[in-house]
Amino acid sequence: MVLDLSMAITFVLLMNPRVFNGLPFHEMAGLVIAVAILIHIGLNYRWVINTTKKIFAPKLPRKTRFSFLLNILLLISMTTVIVSGILISRVVFPNLAIEGNHFVRGIHDLSANMTLALVGLHIGVHWQWIMSTCKKAFKSKEGKWRKGVIASAVLSLAVLAGGMYWISLNVKPSEGDFKPKFAEQNAPSFDGKTAGTMPTPPDGEIRDGKFRKERGSNNPLLALLTYFAIWAAIIIPTYYLEKRMLKNKRAKEASV
What we know:
mainly alpha, single chain, 11 helices
């Protein structure tokens, strides 16, 4: 649960490339998410293997089959986000970046938005399980709060927040680290012939996003509130729709 919550918070912050110090945090946190996804799959490998074997079995519940297909789509979209992010990287993998990458950047943005929607749907489908697990994890059978578990969860989230803050302080901002090629080529020469000129970047470079200024606030709290609200708009109707379908199913079984 702590891992999933940490992934959710980090992913939401990744949706706004301006939070903290911009591109360095965005790319490094993206790699952290990639590792966390592998750990998440590893923790659930038994379910993955068993469901894969039974995916075409007639007795497999529809919810399980739907959840499996949803996870496949989520894995594809998340992989697309990570791979496309590497191909437009300017901090962690600058040597792998593709020139004229506005098409790849478009794929990156589109797959990120699709992943946001799929994660919301994923949480909505498992919301009842999430609430049940939280009650079991943080409360004993006698109804008392488990202070040790709560302390461990708070400490883990504090380490996550501290790590993000450390990155924002110790990694140089992206804007000062990367000089556009056209600026280097047209820099003032020693003879002063090009001094004082203001070159115009090529249209392709603008589309690539090299000279683009990200819009919106760089406040991480505002990013969390915005995207968690978007998730809530997906989770709430998904949860109640599933609840209604389950109620209708039980009514039919009772009538039979």
